[in-house]
Amino acid sequence: MSSSDQPYIDPSEIALESSAVERFKSPSDAFWTGMRDAAGAPAVVLFAGMVGFGAMGRTNGFDVWFTTFTSFFMFALPGQVVLFEMAITGSSALAIALAVTLTSTRFITMTVTLFPQFHHKDRNRSLYASVHLLAMTAWAISMREFHAIETKHRLGYFVGLGLLCWLISIPGTILGFYLAGMVPPAVTLGLVFINPLFFLLTFTEVKPWINRIAICLGCIFGPLFFIVDRDTSLLTAGLVAGTLAYFIDRKFLRKKAGIIG
Amino acid sequence: MANALSGWGLWIALVGACLGTYFCRAIGVFLSSSINQDSEIFRWLAAVTYAMVASLTVRLIVMPLGLMATVPLWIRILICALSIGIMISKPTRRLVPALLAGTLLMVGYGVMR
Question: Which listed residue, of A63, A114, A220, A221, carries a Cα 20 to 30 Å from A210's Cα?
Fold first, then answer.
């Protein structure tokens, strides 16, 4: 623990010494607060995405087990949509696994930024189980709230948050799957449209220029590579556009102080 | 759907995808005590991820398969533009209204045709 005359290195230590100490009485209190914080706009958006995914599975001829298993074991919407999209266009299992793994590399960054904020006693092997609950929603809320939660209750809060997100994604998927078969085609159209629209809207919130360039280049290269060779086009478009954006950022943008902020 | 992956190949792809996804989560836990999140490899990985999701999104909107392909391209693009307009109309988060508006517009188009 830093004493007052030392500079703070870890931002999490600042909050510990202030009012945040008494935010939760017990681990279960933290857990249930996490659940309550997830149950709102974040859960609605995630649920809608999973309903859309279920509808996508139905309209593309996958069975309900395959669709639900995907949500249960992957719990990563972009990767799930990549899997379905590539399976429909007939890509090889290897190309699919590679492309999905690459879209999931964002979890490495998320874990590396979030997990060091847990109490050192919680940082044991059990984290390899809780990490499955990590997804964009839980990560964003945790990053926002953790500074106001004492370290020993952070894991409980995170598990409550992530567990609710994971648990609602399963009924969401099943609901979407069966809805798509029952409701009029107009509603199914809306359901299938949820995910592309959701991804598109989240792009407007991306701040770093390197990632904005990557998105623009991906939008250009995606269709181009699809025409050239559609089996591997997601993989190649992502790698080429992402690498190009990285080098543009490295060569030109990083030197200009005003742009990266 | 003629050349779609099916049967065992499909399940093998799912297992591979699940393992790959979990592997990324687990390697994050493993590295979380020792690595700097600002390192070059993470900048590159983030750029590749965004580029890949962007090309996926464009493909789903511009060159979709199945049901969505029956909607004219300009309708799809118009609805996307309107939703983005709602989203950026206020600096605070407007994700839910924008998503809802876009989805309802698509349903509305489906009802009208």
Answer: A114
